[in-house]
Design brief:
Number of strands of chain A: 2
Oligomer: heterodimer
Helix content of chain A: over 70%
Structural class of chain A: mainly alpha
Low-confidence stretches of chain A: none
Shape of chain B: elongated
Helix content of chain B: 55-70%
Low-confidence stretches of chain B: none
CATH architecture of chain B: Orthogonal Bundle
Strand order of the largest sheet of chain A: 1-2
Number of domains of chain B: 1
Largest sheet of chain A: 2 strands, antiparallel
Strand content of chain A: under 5%
Number of strands of chain B: 0
Order of helices and strands of chain A: HHEEHHHHHHHHHHHHHHHHHH
Largest interface: A-B, 33 and 35 residues
Shape of chain A: globular
Number of helices of chain A: 20
Radius of gyration of chain B: 20 Å
Mean pLDDT of chain B: 85
Structural class of chain B: mainly alpha
Chain lengths: 488, 121
């Protein structure tokens, strides 16, 4: 099979070669990025087929863990790397049409670095290596948010950078505390030995790391950077940032809680924080005028829902959370990409300027509605099944707290539905515009069409997806299998 | 004197102190450059703590050469390797933040963050 390390090495090597090679011809950058993205997608699918049943541990540089760094590729990492490479590839194709200025080689270089960071974070089983990949991800996303070099982008990027750097400091401190008290950096080795270490230091380290990753995952109240950063970035970058970057950080938090330290005593707190994040995101989205800010706040709401799903702490809930990650990645990137095209055509980010836009751009109107309905959770779109599973898991917990929280989640869904219907109503009423809006270029048609088709037809294959998310969820909580696979 | 303050306590306090000062600067200062300095200070504090976490009393630097001491007389070399990586990452973030600060200054003509408010919540 393909060595999973290629998923990391190929994009990072390409990222460093692109600026040099594109000195010869500027357009080469696009082709290199395209082929690397395609290679990563195919390799991720191939690795997925091999590791969905048998997790593997890949040793790097010949030193066996716990001394050397290793990758752990189980069902969870396999599912997530498909999500990352797929959304990354489609957003990259979308960028080909719009990112064509002089510095575009740097754009593709940083885009590939972002992919490297995200894939590395889900694959690695070494906690310091995790930090390095996290920083690669963060630095490239700071730079990409500011790519347009306009006021909004720079300001949002600065906010993101300051808050993200504080998060990195906290994470690094947590890692140092873990090494100080346990004496190892390998996740499986930590999981094996942490019970003998100083309990207080470990708890402080867990809290520091959760807070640090919580900033990147935009958990309330650490999310003030997100609406600015996600709304000011170029649309393809917004799709990527909302599609998988915040989810990857959330998955790392869950890995820390479930897989490394069995710190499940945080979960009741997280259930409440998740629902607060959800309500705060949906309520703020409701009163926004800027369409990308609406979508960014909706991402905060979705992160809250995913956090709530994981906090249910039953196999069904965790599986539902992973399903919701897939749904959110597909639907939200579809929404961001279609909103980006509408902004490009109309030159305005304000929803009130979109009167009758869906009549002159029927394709865009339809895919936007499909994405919105899937996020709200209307059957038969993919979002219905993930939300349904989460609600089912929360109710079968048989606890008053979770019933109340479920009611609040459903209330949040109503808000979500109301602002999406408000946008849809504006888009479908009003006069038809005369300009040649109907013709959509292939670079936009292909990603949007593919994502919309996946959302619509996935109900045929729900049992298959559920099977995979169940396996991924079991992989997240099965500590013994993880330790066994890594340390042998 | 040695009984009251030993070197471990001193370094530990210094590292925590630097992190706290750095985060305080980020929260309290209005000037963008000072905020970036604060981030740097917090980073340095953590780096000192990482080096400290591998320190063993009365042991020497981990350099292997002819006639050197055995590994039982050396400090833990791993944190030193980690800290090099962390310093390089911190350098990258600082360079990027300064570059963005320059661009912001060109747009707004000021580095006062209370005046840089194009985006509202």
């Amino acid at each position: 099979m393909v060595n999973p390390i290629l998923l990391i090495i190929v994009p990072i090597a390409a990222a460093f070669f692109i600026p040099i090679i594109s000195k010869a011809a500027k357009s080469l950058a696009k082709y290199i990025a395209f082929f690397v993205g395609l290679f990563n997608l195919i390799a991720a699918i191939y690795i997925f087929m091999h590791t969905i049943n048998t997790p593997i541990s890949v040793i790097i540089a010949g030193y066996k863990p716990p001394v050397g760094i290793n990758l752990y590729v189980g069902p969870l990492a396999a599912v997530l790397s498909i999500v990352i490479t797929f959304i990354g590839f489609l957003s990259m194709i979308y960028s080909f049409k719009y990112i064509n200025d002089d510095s575009s080689p740097l754009f593709y270089s940083m885009f590939l670095l972002l992919l490297t960071g995200a894939i590395g974070m889900v694959l690695t089983a070494d906690i310091f290596n995790l930090f390095v990949f996290f920083e690669i991800l963060c630095i490239s996303s700071y730079a990409l948010v500011a790519y347009d070099r306009n006021r909004d982008g720079l300001e949002a990027s600065m906010k993101y950078l300051i808050q993200g750097s504080i998060g990195s400091v906290l994470i690094l401190f947590g890692i140092a505390l873990i090494y100080f008290s346990i004496g190892t950096l390998n996740m499986a080795d930590i999981a094996l030995k942490y019970q003998n270490a100083n309990k207080n230091l470990i708890t402080i380290a867990i809290i520091l790391m959760i807070t640090g990753f919580g900033i990147e995952a935009a958990i309330f109240p650490l999310n003030s950077w997100l609406p600015d950063a996600h709304s000011s970035a170029p649309s393809s970058i917004s799709a990527v940032l909302s599609g998988f970057v915040i989810e990857v950080a959330l998955i790392i938090i869950m890995k820390i809680i479930f897989l490394i330290f069995s710190a499940t005593y945080f979960l009741t707190f997280f259930a409440i924080v998740g629902v607060i994040t959800l309500l705060m995101g949906e309520l703020s989205a409701f009163k926004q005028e800027n369409i990308k800010r609406v979508l960014a706040y909706s991402s905060i709401g979705q992160i809250g829902l995913i956090l709530f799903a994981f906090s249910i702490n039953t196999p069904q809930g965790i599986s539902g959370g992973i399903f919701q990650i897939i749904n959110h990645a597909v639907s939200k990137s579809l929404l961001f990409l279609s909103a980006g095209y509408v902004i490009h055509k109309t030159g305005s980010k304000n929803v009130s300027d979109y009167k009758g836009i869906a009549k002159s751009m029927p394709f865009l109107g339809i895919v936007f509605i499909i994405g919105a309905l899937s996020l709200i959770g209307i059957p038969p779109f993919i979002g219905f099944f993930s939300k349904f599973n989460i609600i089912l898991a929360a109710i079968s917990k048989h606890s008053v707290l979770y019933i109340v929280l479920t009611a609040l989640v459903l209330l949040g869904t109503i808000f979500e539905a109301s602002y999406f219907f408000k946008i849809a109503k504006i888009m479908y009423t009003g006069k038809k515009r005369k300009e040649g809006y109907a013709k959509v270029p292939f670079a936009v048609l292909f990603p949007l069409g593919l994502l919309a088709i996946i959302i619509v037809i996935s109900f045929i294959y729900t049992n298959g997806i559920l099977n995979y998310t169940n396996k991924a969820g079991a992989d997240l909580i099965n500590k013994i299998a993880f330790i066994h696979a890594v340390l042998g | 004197m040695n009984n009251i303050i030993n070197i471990e306590t001193l370094i530990f306090t210094a590292s925590i102190g630097l992190v706290v000062i750095g985060i305080y600067l980020v929260i309290a200062e209005k000037n963008l450059i000072k905020i970036i300095i604060g981030l740097n200070l917090a980073d340095s504090g953590v780096n000192i703590f990482i080096v400290f976490s591998g320190y063993i009393k009365n042991k020497t630097a981990p350099i292997f050469s002819k006639g050197s001491l055995g590994f039982e007389n050396m400090v833990d070399p791993l944190p030193q390797a980690l800290v090099l990586t962390a310093i390089v990452i911190g350098f990258g973030v600082t360079a990027l933040s300064l570059a963005i600060a320059i661009r912001l200054y060109k747009h707004y003509g000021t580095l006062d963050i209370s005046k840089i408010r194009g985006l509202k919540w």
